[in-house]
Structure of Glycosyltransferase (Family 32):
Amino acid sequence: MTSEGEQSDALAFFGVSGINCKRTFRRNVWSASVQEENQWMQYLLSLSNQRHGAGDANLANNDGASDIGCFNIPQIIHFIWLGGNSMPKFPFLRSEIDCDDKQAASEWNECVESWKAHHPPSKGWEVVIWTEENIVNDNDTIGSVDETKKFVLKQNEMQNKDAYMQALQMKNYGVASDILRLDILNMFGGVYADVDCFCVGCFDNLMSGPSQFFCGASNTGCVELNNGLMACRKGGHPIVTEMIDLIHDYFENELSKENKQESVISMLSSFLDATTLNALESTQSASSRTLSPMDIIEHTGPGLLTRLVCRWLVTNGDNERASPIIVFPSRVFHSFPNHLRNRLSADDETTGQILLRSFMNPKDAKAVHLWGCSWQNEK
């Protein structure tokens, strides 16, 4: 950044401004160098000022385009919930939505209902909750699985089936969700949202125009884009394709390491006593089935998205023939900062709503990420 004005604009773009201005802005988290990160920020701000590429918040509220037929990105909202447990609940938001008798269901929460309220079928929208049941075996027919499920994905249609299945085997549903959302967007297009993203406005106006992929700046005290809410045209986008490829390479490399460890143990088995062999196998099994939260963020989550999108923008942003993308400022999807998530009390409706609204500008915000981080609490 070359001036105080640019630095101030960059901090605002990533949420470190106003009521949150005392937060330390961490540098060089996902970039190879501070110089590269400065280039990322300058390019994002430049595109934002030009009202293309990286999206200005005003673009999110342009009321000019609302015809159902003009959307580049399909009017489908995808959620993913794996593992069979109940979705996280946010009782302090219940007065914001119309609750019904389904709120005890495992696939119900306030955030999902907020998206349904702002995106009704009458306006051409569909809302899908993906579970393991939507991913069918290669030999199954759609009718043999569940005729009520319009959206299914056969395993042989998945670009990263092996990585997805490995994540499920590890019971790491955060990683499995990171993988699955890319395959879903690649196949069907639409909007993907985490189940802890609360919707406060219709996305009609974000879906029109030339954009073929969009996401938003995070609010984590650094230069970061968040994969908890993103959208893509049907048939994928170069960024989605590259994310799929890099995740495939990462898991293939990790699986190769695991296979090598198993080969070594197999070779040693005839030389070790049973107790030592069992201990070695247990150690190998534990190490191969654990991905830390940082591993997830870096290799399948926001870290991966940030590096790819920013480098893609720097390389292709001025190319009119490239598939256009939008990166919205944090105030559009992620106005609430992640380091305050523990202050959202589940028992105090008024305090929680006041805290959220203190960070939201009604003219800009379309959704707010609550940072539930359920993927970090998986057992």
Observations:
- Confidence is low (pLDDT under 50) at residues 57-69, 259-268.
